[in-house]
User: Fold N(4)-bis(aminopropyl)spermidine synthase C-terminal domain-containing protein from candidate division WWE3 bacterium RIFCSPLOWO2_01_FULL_37_15.
Amino acid sequence: MFEVVRQLKKTNPDLKEREIEGVLFILKNNLGDSAELKNNSGSRSGLKNNELITLTGLPKETLKIFKSSMSNLLEKNEEYIKLNEEGSRQLSSLDLRPYLWTLVDIGTPELAEKIQQIRHDTLLKEKREFDQFFATYKTTSSKAAVLYEKGMVDGKNIAILGDDDLVSVALGIKYPNYNKITVFDIDDAILNTVKTLASELGLKNIETVNYDARKDLPHHFEDTYDVVTTDPPYTSGGISLFLNRGIQLLNKSKDYSGTYIFLFYGNSFKSPEKTLKIQELILDYGLLIEDKIDKFARYSGAESVGNASSLYILKLTPFIKNIPVLSKPEIYTFENVKEEKFPFVDHYTFKFFKVPRNVLISKKDLVNNVESFCAAHKLKIVDTKITNFKKSGLSLTFILSTSNLLLHTWPEFSALHIDLITCVPIYNKENMVKTLSKAFNSFSVEARKIE
Assistant:
């Protein structure tokens, strides 16, 4: 590892060494469009700060810290980042390697150039009230290309939930063998632009629908499409709502070839809990993450997430769940949506298999085993209720001083399920599976932390 990389790692602990080397490679070679511009002295002016964000996909604050940490090697300039004489001297002798900021580079320069000209001619303006951040021309080309390469264009019905990136137009120009494209958008300016371009360019079978995803989807659009692509508001409410609408729009495949949602989501790598929440939502819907391509899409104006988003290619499975959504009106990031939390701090479920039948049918043993578990983990039982079911199944409800524990048995399947919620942290929680396995004489168990 180069010494300069090692030193920069000390002041930039959140970056990998290869990422640091990749940024230095960009600076050493003065890459980027703005670096080609000449200043008054005739030398190249360096990269604009925002351009470095777009090239790397790293958040604005992260690169701000990086820039400060190597200020002795940079010229003093608020708008640009460029090596000074000492920086050029130090890096010139190093065999720095470029970093693959994304593992997929797809699309065609010709289509990107066409989209650039269209953008220039249409003069569309981003509307922050709809969380619009226009993708780069190359990204629009890439969004169309990835649909095509995954077999989701030829002969397919395509739904686009929000099309400020003009993906419908890119598809119509480069990949015209789809059956139909329907653009759903809340912004009339986007819809009118798509309609006008489709007419002027002779793009076939592109329809537009003014639609606010917070309202019910008209029934005649349900179960109609083979693929949905969407770049929704980057809030958990926005993602959940748009996933729900996407599932409603898609044909429910009867085989394993699948119908798909192409979801774009961006977030700072310093807030992994937000990304984990999105992945939980995806799994809750029963969607399979077939591919995830980090930093696939690039934008302008979204510096807080590194001007980048990742592509999740989601496949509908036979286990799909169309979860009813009662959407709050606040789904956009500018509304400063706060995550609401329930007042419990621990929620676990346990599924036990191969439980001895005598354990499952004995009320006394079940109560004693739960009491033993609660004592081991300092959970106080204040009330107990037992309900009998057919085939000897039992449900036991234990009211705890800090919430509740529910237990149900299926003797015919040698199975037992426990749902535990508490309002205070559970004592010695890392050993709960061991305690329960011993109590119920079964070591075949699935444990899951819900919250």
Remarks:
- Residues 109-335 form a domain with the Rossmann fold fold (CATH 3.40.50.150).
